[in-house]
Design goal:
Structural class: alpha/beta
Number of helices: 3
Strand content: 25-35%
CATH superfamily: 2,3-Dihydroxybiphenyl 1,2-Dioxygenase, domain 1
Number of strands: 8
Distance between the termini: 36 Å
Order of helices and strands: EHEHEEEHEEE
Helix content: 10-25%
Radius of gyration: 15 Å
CATH class: Alpha Beta
Number of domains: 1
Shape: globular
Largest sheet: 4 strands, mixed
């Protein structure tokens, strides 16, 4: 039975920081928050989903940010997103090493590394 796609990406976050997750993932990145199933909501965290894009943040009592491992998000309008992130005080690192793509890295409020890329037209 072959694996056919990733269902969601789970990132860790510290306890009690759900509002910072909402401000970043929903407010800045524009991924709507969806309710967690009640049995999982008691654990904290937050889920953000739009169509096939699913990013779940779960509370880790021994939280350490993922500084190398990361999700890569395909973006339409990367330049606009970079401006928005910088205006919000998020450090953005540009990278031109992937042929055929514009690409940047940024950290979420918890220090998790995120990649944003847009194919050249």
């Amino acid at each position: 039975m072959p694996i056919c796609q990733i269902d969601h990406v789970q990132l860790a976050m510290p306890s009690g920081k759900e509002e910072a997750a909402r401000e970043f993932y929903s407010g800045l990145l524009g991924i709507p928050e969806v309710p967690k199933p009640p049995i999982l909501a008691a654990r904290g965290g937050a889920w953000f989903e739009a169509g096939d894009l699913r990013v779940h943040l779960g509370v880790d009592s021994d939280f350490r940010p993922a500084k190398k491992a990361h999700p890569a998000f395909r973006v339409l309008g990367l330049a606009d997103l970079v401006v928005k992130l910088r205006e919000a005080g998020v450090a953005v690192i540009e990278d031109d090493l992937l042929q055929g793509f514009d690409r940047v890295y940024a950290n979420d409020p918890f220090g998790n590394r995120l990649e944003f890329l847009e194919p050249h037209s």
